[in-house]
Design goal:
The chain has 208 residues and is mostly beta strands. The protein contains no helices and 13 strands. The protein is 0% helix and 67% strand. Strands 1-2-3-4-5-6-9-10-13 form a nine-stranded antiparallel sheet, with no helix packed on it. A two-stranded antiparallel sheet has the order 7-8. It has a two-stranded antiparallel ribbon with strand order 11-12. Strand 2 and strand 3 form a beta hairpin. The radius of gyration is 22 Å and the shape is globular. The protein starts with 8 loop residues before the first strand and ends with a strand.
Length: 208
């Protein structure tokens, strides 16, 4: 880190709820929701110069208001076939509260999206295992000033995984195939540095 960085000071408030249910021992679901409010002085932020070099800076005063929600569900169709669902969503307003007279007062901090989410649906069976997943974020800015040209578009990217586990005596073998960014979505995480398009990965794991 930079020797000029000041340590953060934070006042935090949060509350949360959890709800769980099951039906006939075959279907289980759990929902969680957490809300929080943070007031941060000298917030430390990492801002990328490029894909490989990041710079840490302080932001004088920041208010972070957010909600996190998750869902976890399992459905045992029968002892040999199981469906699982996982999903999460985050709403986060992290805004600059340093100087009320500044034109940038109340702006969302750089590289922090307001909305973030992901979902994964998996099928586990004796023959093969299959998973579909997706993740995405909303628009964000590469600068807290939000000047022209700093807006980075949001995206939703999906992938799929197929894998098979095979027992080899006391050892196990797994063959796995991943398709990443399966719809060849064009997007950026760091401004002006496009992420790869559709790609494939094949892996073989042998547990000795």
């Amino acid at each position: 880190g930079s020797p000029d960085l000041k340590p953060e000071r934070t006042d935090q408030w949060n509350t949360g709820l959890t709800w769980a249910a099951s039906l006939s021992g075959k279907w289980h679901v759990q929902l969680t929701a957490d809300g929080y409010l943070n007031h941060v002085s000298d917030k430390i932020m990492a801002v990328p110069r490029n894909l490989f070099i990041w710079q840490c800076i302080n932001v004088g005063k920041v208010r972070v208001l957010g909600v996190d929600a998750t869902i976890e569900s399992t459905w045992s169709i029968n002892p040999r076939h199981i469906l699982t669902l996982h999903g999460s969503y985050s709403l986060q307003h992290a805004t600059n509260r340093t100087l009320p007279t500044s034109p940038y007062y109340g702006n969302q901090l750089a590289y922090i999206p307001c909305h973030t989410g992901n979902v994964a649906l998996s099928w586990i069976s004796p023959w093969i295992n299959l998973s579909f997943s997706g993740e995405g974020i909303s628009d964000r800015y590469s600068s807290t000033e939000h000047y022209d040209g700093t807006r980075i578009g949001g995206y939703w990217e999906m992938g799929t995984t197929v894998w098979k586990d095979v027992s080899c005596g006391r050892h196990s073998l797994q063959l796995r195939v991943d398709i990443k960014n399966m719809f060849n979505r064009q997007y950026e995480i760091v401004r002006l540095y496009p992420m790869p398009g559709r790609s494939f990965m094949v892996a073989l794991h042998y547990d000795i």
